[in-house]
Write a structure and sequence with these properties.
Layout lengths: L9 H7 L5 H17 L6 H4 L17 H5 L14 H6 L3 H32 L6 H70 L2 H77 L5 H6 L1 H18 L1 H11 L1
Helix pairs in contact: 1-8, 2-7, 2-8, 6-7, 7-8, 7-10, 7-11, 8-10, 8-11
Length: about 325
C-alpha cells in the first residue's frame, strides 16, 4: 500500500515561523501603552498631585488681574501683566480637542469592527477544516486580525492622548489662575492701603507699596514658570509614548506585509498540489481503486489544501486595506 503525504509550501513554513505570535505580543505592547496614556503615567510629579480639571477650563476667559481695576489700582496692572501671559498662551477651544479625539476614537471602533467581522467570517468558512492546513490558516487569520486590532489600538491611544493632553493643559490653566488669585489676595490690600495713605504721605506710601507688589508678583511668577516647565516635561513624556506606539505599529505593518506575501506564495503552490492530488485520488479513477485507503487520505488532504489555497486571498486583501 502506498501512503501519500502532504506538506505545506516551504516558503510559508520557513518564513512564517519567526513571526509566530509576534503580532499578538506587539498588540499587547500597544494596549499597555494605551493604558499608560489613559492613566496619565506620563504626568510629571509637579502636576500629579494637583487637582484635575475638565476640558472646559481651556475655554475660560477669566482675568484675575481685573481685581486691581475693581480696587481702583488698575495703574499697577501693566507692571505685573506677565502673570496673565501664560493664560493667553494656554487657553483654547475645548470642542476642537473633543472633536479630534472623537475622530480617532471612531477610527478605532471601525477597525475593531472589521477585525471582529474578519475573525467571525474566517471561523465560519473554516469550521469544517481539519489538519495542518486548517491550523496554519487559523494562525495566519489570527495574526492578521491582531494586526487590524493593532491599528485600532493605536487610534484609540491617539484619542486618549488628545483628551489627556487637553485635560492637563486645562489643569495648568486652573493652577495658574489660582496662583494669580493668591497673588492678588496679597497685593490688593497693600496697594489699596497705600492709595488711601497717599494724600497724607504725599505719595510716599505708593513709592513703597509698588515695589512690594511687584516683588510678590515676581515670586508667584516663578511658581507659575515651574508649573509651565512641568507641563512641558509631561508633554515630552506623552510624545515619547505616542512615538513608541507608532514605532510598534510600523513593525506590525511590516509583519503583516510578510504574512501577506507568504499567503500569496502559498496560494499558487496550494492550488497546484490540491488539483493534482484531487484528480489522481478521485474515487472513480483507476488509481483511486488501486490505492484504496491511500487515495482516500490523499483526497482528504488535498481538499484541505485547496481550502487553504483559496482563503489566504482574503487575508491579503484585508492586509492591503489596513496596510
Amino acid at each position: 500500500m502506498t501512503t501519500t503525504t502532504t506538506t505545506l509550501p516551504q516558503t510559508g513554513a520557513a518564513e512564517q515561523a519567526p513571526d509566530a505570535g509576534r503580532i499578538s505580543a506587539l498588540l499587547d505592547e500597544l494596549r499597555a501603552t494605551g493604558n499608560s496614556v489613559a492613566n496619565k503615567e506620563w504626568l510629571s510629579g509637579e502636576l500629579a498631585g494637583e487637582p484635575p480639571a475638565s476640558l472646559d477650563a481651556l475655554g475660560s476667559n477669566t482675568k484675575p488681574l481685573s481685581a486691581l481695576d475693581s480696587a481702583g489700582a488698575g495703574f499697577l496692572t501693566p507692571m505685573i501683566s506677565f502673570l496673565e501671559e501664560p493664560l493667553n498662551q494656554l487657553r483654547g477651544n475645548p470642542e476642537s480637542v473633543s472633536s479630534g479625539a472623537g475622530e480617532f476614537d471612531g477610527a478605532a471602533k471601525g477597525a475593531t469592527s472589521v477585525a471582529e467581522e474578519y475573525k467571525s467570517t474566517a471561523a465560519g468558512e473554516t469550521s469544517k477544516w481539519s489538519g495542518g492546513a486548517a491550523e496554519n490558516y487559523a494562525k495566519t487569520g489570527t495574526e492578521l486580525a491582531d494586526g487590524i486590532l493593532s491599528i485600532a489600538e493605536t487610534s484609540l491611544t491617539s484619542a486618549k492622548s488628545m483628551i489627556g493632553a487637553g485635560e492637563v493643559v486645562a489643569q495648568v490653566v486652573d493652577i495658574v489662575t489660582r496662583l494669580i488669585g493668591e497673588a492678588m489676595a496679597k497685593i490688593v490690600p497693600i496697594i489699596t492701603q497705600a492709595i488711601a495713605a497717599a494724600p497724607a504721605t504725599f505719595g510716599q506710601s505708593l513709592a513703597v507699596a509698588i515695589p512690594q507688589c511687584v516683588q510678590i508678583a515676581t515670586e508667584y511668577g516663578a511658581q507659575i514658570a515651574a508649573k509651565l516647565g512641568a507641563l512641558l516635561s509631561s508633554g515630552q513624556n506623552l510624545i515619547k509614548l505616542i512615538d513608541g506606539a507608532l514605532g510598534v505599529l510600523k513593525i506590525v505593518k511590516q509583519v503583516m506585509t510578510v504574512i501577506g506575501k507568504q499567503s500569496q506564495g502559498g496560494s499558487s503552490g496550494g492550488q497546484g498540489q490540491g488539483q493534482g492530488q484531487g484528480q489522481g485520488g478521485s474515487p472513480g479513477s483507476s488509481s483511486g481503486q488501486g490505492q484504496g485507503d491511500s487515495s482516500s487520505a490523499s483526497s482528504s488532504t488535498s481538499s484541505g489544501e485547496q481550502s487553504q489555497a483559496s482563503a489566504p486571498k482574503n487575508d491579503s486583501a484585508a492586509m492591503e486595506d489596513f496596510g
